[in-house]
Amino acid sequence: MSGSLLLQSLILGVLLGGLYALLAAGLTLYFGVMRVVMIAHSAFLILAAYLAWWFQGETGIDPLVSLLVTVPLFFVIGYVMQRLLLSRLRPASLTMMSVLLTFAIALVIEGGLGYVFSGTQRRIQLDYSSSSIEVLGANIAVVKLIAFALAGVALVGLWALMKLTRFGQALRATIQHPEAARLLGVNTDRIAGFGFGLGLATAAIGGTALSLDSTIYPSLHWHWIGPLMAIIVVGGLGSIPGAAIAAMVLGISQSLLQIPLGTTWAQTVFYVALFATLMVRPQGFFGGRLAQRF
Amino acid sequence: MPSASSTRSAFDTALLGVRGLILVVAAVLVLAFPRMAPDAFILSVGVVIASYAALAVGWNFVGGFTGYISLGHAAYSGLGGYGTALLIIDAGWNPWLALVGAAVAVALIAVPIGVASLRVRGASFVIVSISLVLILLLVSQSWSGLTGGSNGLRVPRPFADDVLRPEQHERFFYLNVALVVVALAVWWAIDRSRFGTGLKAIREDEDKAQALGVPTFAYKLAVFVISAFFTAMAGGLYALWFGSLDPIFQFSILIGSYMVLMSLLGGIRSLFGPVVGAVIVGYSLEYFKAQYGDTQFHLVALGLLLALVVLFMPDGVLPALGSLVDRLRPDRATSIREMTAAELLEHNRAIEKDSGTDGAAEDRETEEVVR
């Protein structure tokens, strides 16, 4: 194995890990604010990718511009979904039933995409689709760099929002201790809705990033849901730094394992990590004592 | 709920009579179905529904007793199917022996899987169950030397060539019904046993059950393995009937979600819930596929159905009917019925509200405890 191939895989792994980290952060956000495991996250990811593809096909404008519409749209969808659907579930069985409910939403999205756009595989054609830059003998596609940059900007934005604004403070308070937050006058119901919208907005960004260099089809979300779920379990449900670290480590491992094993078998690294985590540390590597119960 | 006391009220006797009558009529209808079916297509739909019922009852051993919702039981039905096929093709076993052998093998495989996945509860368990199917899908697609990969695997017919297609459907219909009956009998026996009581205690409050001395892990594992066995039998029977296996359809999360939907819709706490759910869901699925087969619309229909059940009927059709009957009961106050932890919470909260205890914080606290 040549050094440049290794370097290339490593760089690709980091780029992939960034995207995984963004999407896993969204999943962790839902879990934090609502104790909800959102199976439909990756379906919304594919929906955003389709919207970007459709937007580009109809208008010929760069798909990144579609973010101006999809991000607010997804935020509203997330808010409405939380307030109208998820908050209706009984508290005693919330975690379990939310999985089934969001699974149902994922099916509706997949079926709807297939119905509207058919099952045909789609791909965005861009002027810079095939261009790449060379770093120390490693070829890195420009679209992958753009996707990583998007993920990076979104993650930094998310971090700034959580740490520097009053809304972020209220959201963190809601995650840490809902009762105390309510005592201090935080409207936790509304904050939970906003948190959900925020999580879904990350899916809009991730989906658009994905659309730049992937072939998309309606059932693609199943390929994403497994790795993403594995990442949040390994990282510990509810821990954003845990999700980010697990996403990086697993993304890089997947990329490196592709050299000896090939793409399909390399994907099993997520599941191996998942089961190994359950055997060694069921609550995940960064999760608190509570994570095991969910 | 059957009340077993000797002082049975007239209402209960009448109820028992009605239940018995419904059961007999249902049994006669099921047994006469192949004779009444107008054509081979309807007959094959019947086989599919019977097969779904077998899968749902198999699923309900874990889902109904312990409340652990597995979205990945297609792993066991798929393994049962592939196991049966491989034992016939590669090892030259008799088809029926292969069916049982594969189910036993799947039950053995379920032991380590159960040890790993039953360590976590709730949502993490669901995630693990989904991952299991995705792994098996990856493996079965990649390991084409064994499974035929995406080309699939042809399963030899278990009956001689002179048995025609409609006759095959008829035989497989009865085989599936027999499997359902056996599985229901086992479910019923567990439901009445100490083992079953322990499992239901886990469902309502696992920590308290453990504190009371229920060997929760061993119980969960045992029922998990039983569930895998019956699900694998159903999967193997399907493979023998359908005659070909394809990874995408065998290790599909959709099949697993059908099982969940059927059981939830009918009612996971009742014996016949999964069967009733299988008839409703199986019929609607076949209808949707026939009407909108070339589009993905049947996925939308399935998703909407699941969402409606989760939002408005989380206890299922049969328990809803049961509470309707309870409402008609003349001596409602004396009725003994199973209360779920959620119902108990609602009940307590209503009492609390009545007695004027105020404060959302307290409600929140009870929620936390129940979680």
UniProtKB/TrEMBL annotation, chain A:
It is a multi-pass membrane protein. GO terms for cellular component: plasma membrane. GO terms for molecular function: transmembrane transporter activity. The chain crosses the membrane at residues 6-29, 36-55, 61-81, 93-117, 137-162, 191-212, 224-252, 259-280. Keywords: Amino-acid transport, Cell membrane, Membrane, Transmembrane, Transmembrane helix, Transport. It is found in: Cell membrane. It holds the Pfam family BPD_transp_2. One of its GO terms (biological process) is amino acid transport. It comes from the Bacteria. Belongs to the binding-protein-dependent transport system permease family. LivHM subfamily. This is Branched-chain amino acid transport system permease protein.
From TrEMBL, chain B:
It is a multi-pass membrane protein. Keywords: Cell membrane, Membrane, Transmembrane, Transmembrane helix. Residues 352-371 are annotated as: Disordered. It is found in: Cell membrane. It comes from the Bacteria. One of its GO terms (cellular component) is plasma membrane. Signal peptide: none annotated. Pfam families: BPD_transp_2. Its main location: membrane. GO terms for molecular function: branched-chain amino acid transmembrane transporter activity. The chain crosses the membrane at residues 14-33, 40-62, 96-116, 122-139, 172-190, 217-241, 253-285, 297-322. PANTHER family: HIGH-AFFINITY BRANCHED-CHAIN AMINO ACID TRANSPORT PROTEIN BRAE (PTHR30482:SF10), HIGH-AFFINITY BRANCHED-CHAIN AMINO ACID TRANSPORT SYSTEM PERMEASE (PTHR30482). This is Branched-chain amino acid transport system permease protein. It comes from Nocardioides marinus.
